[in-house]
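User: Show me an example of a complex going from sequences to structure tokens.

Assistant: Sure. Here are the input components:
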Amino acid sequence: MGILGLGTVGTGTVELLLDSTGRNPLLSEIEIYRVGVRELNKPRKVKLPDGVIINDLNAIVSDPQVDIIVELIGGVEPARSLVLRAIQFGKHIITANKALISRFGDEIFTAADQAGVYVMLEAAVGGGIPVIRPLKESLSINRINTVTAIINGTTNYILTQMQMGSGSFDDVLTDAQNLGYAEADPSADIDGLDAADKIAILASLAFNGRIRLEEVYYEGICKVSKIDIVYAEKLGFVIKLLAIAQQDKKDNLPAPLSVRVHPTLVPKEHPLASINGIYNAILVEGEPIGQVMFFGPGAGAGATASAVSSDILNMVAELKISAQTLNPILTWKLHKHNEITPIEELITRFYARILTRDEPSVVGKLGTCFGKYGVSLESVVQTGFQDKLAEIVVVTHDVREGDFRQALKEIESLDTIHSTPSIFRVL
Amino acid sequence: MGILGLGTVGTGTVELLLDSTGRNPLLSEIEIYRVGVRELNKPRKVKLPDGVIINDLNAIVSDPQVDIIVELIGGVEPARSLVLRAIQFGKHIITANKALISRFGDEIFTAADQAGVYVMLEAAVGGGIPVIRPLKESLSINRINTVTAIINGTTNYILTQMQMGSGSFDDVLTDAQNLGYAEADPSADIDGLDAADKIAILASLAFNGRIRLEEVYYEGICKVSKIDIVYAEKLGFVIKLLAIAQQDKKDNLPAPLSVRVHPTLVPKEHPLASINGIYNAILVEGEPIGQVMFFGPGAGAGATASAVSSDILNMVAELKISAQTLNPILTWKLHKHNEITPIEELITRFYARILTRDEPSVVGKLGTCFGKYGVSLESVVQTGFQDKLAEIVVVTHDVREGDFRQALKEIESLDTIHSTPSIFRVL
């Protein structure tokens, strides 16, 4: 085996593979033959024999002694080129790289298919939580309807802390950074891009077709304020950053998929409502299974190393049976692209917080405007006036997103409306 | 493939296998060659070609045309004899039969090992929830510390309904029977035996050794009263029937396992506290994974058929690679028996509800008596007197069960003590 990368996850994986007592005996059949790093002279937490750690990564991926390449570099390049080259040289691939797979899965799966090698990527989604393999194997008979997931630990931590009253978004983000739950540049997490990468992978797997990442709608949590969390609470919801992939139906036939990431009001009694802190959870709904949920640590060296190393053991087990014939359930035969519905076509409930000027008839005007576009309201909460502004919070019934947006545009143009600070979808 | 049994799960499985549109294409490679039933002339929901449904089950398990036997009869006999005979004839086995595996797993796995055939049993534990396969595969690198599970839907439904104030144990049980959530003879569920079967299977898998079912302690939910649920609620707990398998440590080395089923006070913020109704959940704690939980429908024709049929697909996938060499991760090489700690040696917290006669110093006497046996109290709640009796509810700190029982025996012998209607363990 050749491992590329010896950062947090790489180190965790090597430590785990070397600590074999009381673990699966198959471990004894695995040799860490090479570990590729950028800087040879950096001090390392793990002890490996001389000559194992080298800095020529290209040599590792083409080394005839190597059967399996474990890519733990992260990011797109040089990971992409190295993985493609490894596949050309007939190596099986294990990766934890969600960005690589969500952006270049197409290219990688096609190459792997031609070369007849495995690509395993349990660690790319949900850290240590088994989800890729259960979807492929344990739920293989099902027609999947929906995948609804909390798959970004940083944002879930921030939202949970805000929910518990620990401060504003900025305060909590700073705390999260100090605790190591958020990166120095947290934008990929905060903006929803990380979750978009992951839901694209889950959607391609659950719905058996490739996903164009640029068609996945995503929206981050920057606009979630403490006041929205309080309103949501009063209305019976918690706010979560959800990643959703859904098979829409039209005339009872499968229509295009809806694949999206956005802050969402989740009813308190929903299984995802109580997933707090850095934990992740993936709720899968299928036929005939009904609802199943996978819950656990979505990040961290140990959890991710668990997923990577279990992929290694399972790959070794399959290769022991045959190095030529692959297990058809474990390959990625995605020959078509899944069609994705544009976000305007989404049918959903909305939550909107609207600031209005001091005028008694404003609720009536809102109602008229919403009614014009077919938006009916499930609940309306109006507060007293402060600084000559009142706050109106509405939750709509199901509505086409495009219609709701148009209604809102018209509402925002009314003299009596000051602004609309928050608009969230409701599960 | 030969299927034994065409009851609820058998019918669900056949329906699923015949409804292939939009499901895994491997389905096309599976032929339902024979279905064995007891009564040939019973009307059936599924349509199969003439001659497929027969009543000579012995002929099916020895038929050279059959590669895979799917045992869905349930119960011990004739399931056991048929499965063993099928193994002798070189058939691979899929079963949903927890009682068979928990009692005769020993015999069956040994025979399968000698014959070189698979035994897959995802449906035996947790209905449709993927848990056997994830433990074997996705968590294969981990050292498992604890499995804590709600794996009996009937009792969880009853406890949830009682929690929601829907009536007494007897009322709710009657409702559950009317709704089909409890059987006409519900004793195996209510008494904890069903959960004991399942935790024995999970324990043998998680801790890689055989379990003697007779060493698994189990206790049912008959003694859980509404008043206990109310006290538990006040103290911050919900009462759940938990099945627990735990690797105890002594001097930091693995000691015997603790494997048991009993009503348990679960802290409200614990992931299992919010698993309600007929749902099941299995919480696994391991190193390095941390906590992962699998949640879903623990019973029902569709969910169980999902597990059985996914086992079928996966077995077919493995057999396509090789019918001779088995995947070593999917076999059951359990060469030793796991040692089990007797329940008296358990270290746990206790909840006890004690009825005392009208006497002011009773709490002091209780404290003295408990203290004598090293039982220290975490909380004490005393109510007013009704009919000359007062109720005292205590929650202890961690204590050896044997010591607690001795203290309680002495307490019950005190003149001032009327009785101890409820004693539960606390998670």
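The lines above are the inputs; the final block is the predicted structure for all two components together. The longest strand of chain A covers residues 253-267.
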